[in-house]
């Protein structure tokens, strides 16, 4: 099954961390697994930060990390959603985000009340800011939504940019230390 057919499969109540990405890129979509593209370093970064306890095969890591807790730090519950779950596109500059996409994300966060939301793409951060008027900084941002007890973090996408992995790993390490 392709990722575009799996919208919110790893979204549920009781999440300790909800990761919010932009959309399924072509390789991950074809693989049917989040962050499974040839160049994706997401799960490797989670491992190096201590958020997961083993360096898992990225072709099945989403099922293990988001579908269970065995490999997660202190057996915490992690989930993931895409802002544009039905848009397969590797070039994020081509992904068109509408206000209603952000509103759906916000509704999901308010409904499912994860302890932590980690936005992991600059376009998600930018669109979040455009709709809410809230400018997220790198790392910990705290409880930024009115009436929502969720702590927000911003981290850079795991690959395809010039931000060093260690910067991203440090942000994930901060999340781990706050669980």
Total of DSSP H or I helical runs spanning 4+ residues: 6
Strand percentage, roughly?
5-15%
SS elements, strand count? 5
- CATH 2nd-level architecture: 3-Layer(aba) Sandwich
Helix content: 25-40%
Largest sheet: number of strands, sense, barrel closure: 5 strands, mixed
What coarse outline follows from CA principal-axis ratios?
globular
Rg on CA atoms, Å = 15 Å
Q: Would you identify the CATH H-level superfamily?
A: Uracil-DNA glycosylase-like domain
Strand arrangement, largest sheet? 2-1-3-5-4
Oligomer classification: single chain
**CATH secondary-structure class:** Alpha Beta
Span between termini: 32 Å
Mean pLDDT: 93
H/E order of the elements? EHHHEHEHEEH
- If you consult CATH, what is the topology? Uracil-DNA Glycosylase, subunit E
Describe, in plain words, how this protein is organized in 3D.
32% of the residues lie in helices and 12% in strands. By secondary structure, the chain is of the alpha/beta class. It has a single domain (3-177), classed as Uracil-DNA Glycosylase, subunit E, CATH 3.40.470.10. A hairpin with an 8-residue loop joins strand 4 (139-142) and strand 5. The N and C termini lie far apart (32 Å). The model has no long low-confidence stretch (mean pLDDT 93).
Describe what is shown at a glance.
This protein is α/β, with parallel strands linked by helices and 179 residues long. The chain has 6 helices and 5 strands. A hairpin with an 8-residue loop joins strand 4 and strand 5.
């Amino acid at each position: 099954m392709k990722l575009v057919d799996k919208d919110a499969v790893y979204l549920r109540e009781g999440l300790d961390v909800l990761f919010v990405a932009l959309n399924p890129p072509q390789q991950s979509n074809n693989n049917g697994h989040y962050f499974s593209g040839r160049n994706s370093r997401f799960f490797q970064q989670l491992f190096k930060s201590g958020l997961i306890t083993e360096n898992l095969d990225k072709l099945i890591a989403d099922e293990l990390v988001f579908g269970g807790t065995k490999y997660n730090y202190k057996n915490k519950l992690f989930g993931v959603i895409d802002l544009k779950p039905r848009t397969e596109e590797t070039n994020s500059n081509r992904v068109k985000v509408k206000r209603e996409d952000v509103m759906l994300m916000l509704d999901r966060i308010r409904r499912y009340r994860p302890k932590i939301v980690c936005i992991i793409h600059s376009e998600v951060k930018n669109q979040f800011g455009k709709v809410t008027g809230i400018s997220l900084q790198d790392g910990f941002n705290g409880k930024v939504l009115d009436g929502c007890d969720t702590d927000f973090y911003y981290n850079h996408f795991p690959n395809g940019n010039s931000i060093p992995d260690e910067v991203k790993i440090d942000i994930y390490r901060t999340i781990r230390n706050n669980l």
